[in-house]
C-alpha cells in the first residue's frame, strides 16, 4: 500500500490557536471515552498490560511470557508437538473485541500442534482433555508486527503487536499420521527460517 502526500492548504492568521485548542479538546475527549469504554483495563502498550495482568489472581506466566489461568481441570495425558488437537476457543483483543470463535464456525477447530502460533502451541501442551484455560499471548507469541485482515472486507481484525486473549477447551487429540509428520516439520522449519528463528 502506498501513501499519497496531499498538500495542506494555508491556514488563516489567528486560526492556529483555535485549531490547537480544538485538537487538545478532541484528544482529551477521545482519551476519556477510550478509558471509560475499557473500564481502565487496557494498557498503553502490551508490556504494561501483561505486567498488570500477571498480578491478577490465578494468572500464571511461563518462561516464554505466555500467561494463562486455569478455568477447568481436565484428565489424562497432554498433547505433544507431534499431535493433532481438537479445540473449542474464542479469541478476543484486550478491549474485549471478539475476532474469532469456533462456536460461530460450527464446532472445534482441528489443527496440528506444531502448525499454529507459538503461544497457542505452548498452551495446548499444558492441557488435558476437558481442560479449559484463559490465555494471553504477548505479540511475539502471536502475530507480532503482522496485522490480520478480514479477507472479505479487508478490515483489520487483529492489529499489529496485539496481545491476544483466548478462552480455550481441549476436546481431543491424537498423533499426526506418520506420512504427514515429515511434511509438517518441513513447513515449520521453512516458517522459522523466514521469520529468522532458529530451527530445532
In short:
The protein has 200 residues and is α+β, with helices and mostly antiparallel strands.
Features:
PPIase_dom_sf, peptidyl-prolyl cis-trans isomerase activity, 200 residues, two-stranded antiparallel sheet, 28% helix, globular
Give an overview of the whole structure.
With 200 residues, the chain is of the alpha+beta class. The protein has a single domain, classed as Chitinase A, domain 3, CATH 3.10.50.40. It has four helices and nine strands; from the N terminus they run H-H-E-E-E-E-E-H-E-E-E-E-H. It has helices at residues 15-37, 46-54, 118-124, 178-194; strands spanning 60-61, 67-72, 83-93, 98-101, 109-112, 132-137, 148-149, 156-158, 164-175. The strands form two sheets. Strands 1, 2, 3, 4, 5, 6 and 9 form a seven-stranded antiparallel beta sheet that branches. Strands 7-8 form a two-stranded antiparallel ribbon. Strand 3 (83-93) and strand 4 form a beta hairpin. It is globular. The relative contact order is 0.15. The model is unreliable at 1-13 and 19-43 (pLDDT under 50). One of its GO terms (molecular function) is peptidyl-prolyl cis-trans isomerase activity. Keywords: Isomerase, Rotamase, Signal. This is Peptidyl-prolyl cis-trans isomerase. Residues 82-174 form the PPIase FKBP-type domain. Its EC number is 5.2.1.8.
